[in-house]
Amino acid sequence: MAEERRQKLCSVILPTESMKAMAESVGVGSLQEDSCLALSEEVSYRIKEIAQDALKFMHHGKRRKLTTGDIDHALKLKNVEPLYGFQSQEFIPFRFASGGGRELHFYEEKEVDLSDIINTPLPRVPLDVSLKAHWLSIDGVQPAIPENPPPVPKEQQKTDSTEPLKAVKPGQEEEGSIQTKGQGASSAEVKGSSAKMVPLKMRMKPRSTHELSVEQQLYYKEITEACVGSCEAKRAVCVCNKCYLFLFQVRVNVVQNNLALLIYLMRMVKALMDNPTLYLEKYLHELIPAVVTCIVSKQLCLRPDVDNHWALRDFAARLMAQSCKTFSTTTNNIQSRITKTFTKALLDDKTQWTTRYGCIAGLAELGHDVIKTLIIPRLSVEGARIKAVMDGPVVSNIDKIGADHVQSLLLKHCASVVAKTRPLPDMVDQYKVDYGYLGTMLCSHVVKARAQAAFQAQTVNRTTLTITQPRPTLSVSQSGLSTSSGSRAPSIIKVPSSLTLMSTRPGTPTQPSPPATKYIVMATSAGAASTQQVRSVLHIHRVHMIVHSKVISVPRILIATPGLISPNIKVFKYTFILQ
Amino acid sequence: MAAVQDGQMELDAEKETKPEILSDGTSNLSGNTASGTLSSSPLTAAPAGGAPKMEDQQTLIAVLQFLKRNKLTDSVEILRREAGLGEDQEDSQATDGSGGGKGDVDGGDANSLLSRVSITSAAAPQSMCDSPLMFMLSAAGADDQPDVSVVLSAYSQQGDPSLYQVYYSGLKNFIESVLDCHRAELSQLFYPLFVHMYLELVYNNHENEAKAFFEKFSGDQECYYQDDLRVLCGLTKKEHLKGNEVLLDFRTSRFVLRISRDSYQLLKRHLQERHNNQIWNIIQEHLYIDIFDGMPRSKSQIDSMSGSLAGEGKREVNKAKVFHGLLKEPEIEVPLDDEDDEAENEEGKPKKKKTKKDSLGSKSKKQDPNAPQQNRIPLPELKDSDKLDKIMYMKESTKRIRLGPENLPSICFYTFLNAYQGLTAVDFTDDSSLLAGGFADSTVRVWSVTPKKLRKVKSAADLNMIDKESDDVLERIMDEKTASESKILYGHSGPVYGVSFSPDRNYLLSSSEDGTVRLWSLLTFTCLVGYKGHNYPVWDTQFSPFGYYFVSGGHDRVARLWATDHYQPLRIFAGHLADVTCTRFHPNSNYVATGSTDRTIRLWDVLNGNCVRIFTGHKGPIHSLAFSPNGKFLASGSTDGRVLLWDIGHGLMIGELKGHTDTIYSLKFSRDGEILASGSMDNTVRLWNSMKAFDEVETDDFTATTGHIHLPDNSQELLLGTYHSKSTPVTHLHFTRRNLLLAAGAYNSQ
């Protein structure tokens, strides 16, 4: 092929017609054919020579494109006067004309009115050259900063992001459309995620921005459907490990006040956390805001007076506690940061009851020490506040309910702690002095707790031991939600209002048969439970990793929230099979 | 189209203007000769004299004639006295000459002189092998014949043009039929024979035959000759040949081939049997066949060395002794380590009382047997400020990070924004405090990359007011009002292709398309000198590591050595067949390396201007060179994206680093030489394990004796890292004294 090109190069000579045309343009009428030929050969050679010299200037100018300036310099090299006049930024527009059996290409030179040029406003002054330094590599590793190109090649990103989509809808879409959409998704994800962290990372083209949002909507829909939807056929639902989606979804749902979806999402977070093969550390910054939102948000549902968003708060608080235990290190300091956040909100007088509830729940879940140091000293203050709502003029039903919930929450958590720390006897008057309005109730709770503790110590002493063990080695079924917070006494599972929360510690590796399942029943309409079931197989990286027949543990949580979920799902049994 | 016609006329006009330009160049040349021999230059050691050989004498006489004609009587006198030429001797020659060509055009004469000088200087290192061609040329020159026609007249012998194809294909068939081991060697003949036969056809006005010949056989040539073939294919007329210097040089220099004795005998026998005189003549006249005893080389061995416009370097050329060792560091008193902190507090003012001699500096560095004499070329004396700088350097180097495959350097990238593709050259100062950029809009810009701003010296009137006795007088002379992060230097009238800081950071050099090299003061930020001499674009310039001298190379195919206080060059290094694209000083300042578009690298001795090394093997124009810090090795990068490593002492290629996909514009060794960094047009910086590359070669030494290399293909093992920038070609690389790698380039938004 190179040979052909070379031969072609060799034979390229300007046509003699051009010579004729040029001669005519300068007033030489009749030019001999021989002269034309000689001229065209000479001109062709000179043009080639100049082009070759111009290439040198291009190379030394460290460019890839030959410019008109290079040609000027090459002409200068040959002692030829360079071309004067304006330099055109665009391609020189050659025009074509034919007539009288001759074809001509010519350069249309417009006559320019000088006054036009003078009167046109000056163009914007180009920016001056400036210098900017960045790290291309630090000790041999290229840092992922906006100044550097993305570390993973485009191809890799493309496959990463297209695969989950393909797995979701095998064969449902045509290959081509997946490809193109996948591409959009890949750039969308890269740009989306980076844009969040560093705003100036890439210059986004308007077109791709549009595609991006559509794609993200689609992706969001897919994921939502997979997690929340009721499709038995969907055997494998891939959950992308990009957790920022959660944040995204939580935001959407908080705005929409969609309690049901939020509950599902929180359960998904829990499932993700329970999966030992996932490394969530990298995504904590995405996860934690989502969870905290579910704990302390002012409003999580459409009808705060009726809906049981308290359960969601409790659940999220427990999740928070779990993640604190699992992920808190001296470097990220999650626990202390979270505690600070909660305390700050709690100390604020203007905080709403819902948020107050969330803060107390979040703190309480963090353990006895936290309760002792942060909540119990606040008891009298909170008691006074509750009293003001309970006994004062009826302001609103919502406030009342809120105060009620906070009260029972405080009693529940504090009772066990007080029971352990406060020496006997339990005198109501003394309690009143110490804890104010709540003292009376607290006293009775403490008495109850002491009795219960004594009873449990007699019967199952083991329980407290096993709870503290890490989950995979658990061998005894026990009551209590399947969190590893060992310090929590079983009694606190009782959720305010009419809820009974229970969970199971089901199958162990040595016990493959379906374990005895206990249900957490929320509200009263448990009887209407349907058998809708979605089995989500959490697979992390690739589709082929999906199924391992060995079921390690199957935590089951059953929550019925009447009237909130779409009518056909009353009870939702959510099962994660962990690899 | 009007412009094209203008150009046509200008081409004719050029003939008239040319003599003037050339005489400029030649007068410089004569100046050079004079200063060199008169020892008026700082190069006190005069070139080794000895009895002038025949051709030297011829040259001198020719120069004398030229001077006479231009009425430079003083120079004539001086030259005659120096050369010890009797007037009669010269006169007799002159009369001969004038008898020969009185009516000759001046231009042709001057032309002949120039090229003759270049030829002889190129031939000087090979003076032992006196070639008949050379003699003939000199003689012809003395006859005052235009050199061009002499060179070309070698072609005038007539053969049947239609038989050329037969001859060539006959040889081709023969070479293809010989044993494999010989075939690879004899295949080297194809390209030079092809070119010479083609040119011969063109010269003898057999245009159609030439075209047919080209079409038939151009496809057989190695792919790396494509650029030359492109030039050749355009050239179809005798007139074209006259204006093309590159091809004229191709004629005057003999294409060098290395062939084993067996293969050569085979070829000779074949040609004699066939009575193939045409080819035999070409081989005799235009090729230099370097015959060696021993095994024929393999195809890969040949390929790694071939590719240049003039064939391989002759073995004798690379046998000359090169003093590649480093000069002994001057003994400088360095403050003790324990008062390091103090010294840093009052920067650059170490207390002399408590100092002692740096034992490391003086004792451990015994005189390297390969090092040149300390005073082989005169070097400027160290000033106080230089000594302070050396102390700073030593301090910094104690904090240097030791690099290696496990310990890669950090890279800091300086991106030029809004350069609109106009950045053409970059340089850092050795202490990495200043950065200079040359731009296509003829400006040079200097940035300070440290918080210390750039300040001018106060005006003369203000300077008078200053108390000259005060300790901080150096601080007081600076004008605070002018402090800024960058300064622009205006003066050139064309794109700036090379910039270089002086080691003491007081001066900056820039070379430009306008044919000048300019020296700028970094105290006043004004131009001090414009060095004229190249007349054509100057592609590169660089200061000597000790300052004072600098070298420049350009489109006129020569490199020139200058001293900052001489407006004329001290040495002219002529020998390259095409543009000199890059120039680098050896760390000991005794040698200069030049890379060229003719795909060779030459090493020149600053002392006598001789070419002491010719390295061939690149397949494209060379755009970057770098000496290793110990002075033993040279790395070169070219447009073909390969980096080649050379052993200077043995004159051998010792490594090939493949990986880049575009022109390599910058190469730099780390301060200890462990790592080689290369920056390319393909927007990457790559790091190579140069230590390993050098070590592996040193272990096997059979190559040293034969001169035949066998390169292991281990680029991937040697590649330590590839770092992509965001569409920013890497124009320059620099290791700081602590081994941090700085890279620079202009962001290309397209």
UniProtKB/TrEMBL annotation, chain A:
GO terms for cellular component: SAGA complex; SLIK (SAGA-like) complex; transcription factor TFIID complex. It is found in: Nucleus. The keyword DNA-binding does not apply. Keywords: Nucleus, Transcription, Transcription regulation. InterPro entries: ARM-type_fold (IPR016024), Histone-fold (IPR009072), TAF6 (IPR037796), TAF6_C (IPR011442), TAF6_C_sf (IPR046344), TAF_TATA-bd_Histone-like_dom (IPR004823). GO terms for molecular function: protein heterodimerization activity; RNA polymerase II general transcription initiation factor activity; transcription coactivator activity. SMART domains: TAF. It comes from the Eukaryota. Residues 142-194 are annotated as: Disordered. One of its GO terms (biological process) is RNA polymerase II preinitiation complex assembly. Residues 177-186 have a biased composition (Polar residues). Residues 12-78 form the TATA box binding protein associated factor (TAF) histone-like fold domain. It holds the Pfam family TAF6_C. Belongs to the TAF6 family. This is Transcription initiation factor TFIID subunit 6. It comes from Cyprinus carpio carpio. The lineage of its organism: Eukaryota, Metazoa, Chordata, Craniata, Vertebrata.
TrEMBL record, chain B:
This is Transcription initiation factor TFIID subunit 5. WD repeats lie at residues 416-457, 489-522, 531-562, 573-614, 615-648, 657-689. PROSITE patterns: LISH, WD_REPEATS_1, WD_REPEATS_2, WD_REPEATS_REGION. PANTHER family: TRANSCRIPTION INITIATION FACTOR TFIID, TRANSCRIPTION INITIATION FACTOR TFIID SUBUNIT 5. CDD domains: TAF5_NTD2, WD40. Pfam families: TFIID_NTD2 (PF04494), WD40 (PF00400). It comes from the Eukaryota. One of its GO terms (cellular component) is transcription factor TFIID complex. Residues 159-287 form the TFIID subunit TAF5 NTD2 domain. GO terms for molecular function: RNA polymerase II general transcription initiation factor activity. InterPro entries: LisH, TFIID_NTD2, TFIID_NTD2_sf, WD40/YVTN_repeat-like_dom_sf, WD40_PAC1, WD40_repeat_CS, WD40_repeat_dom_sf, WD40_rpt.
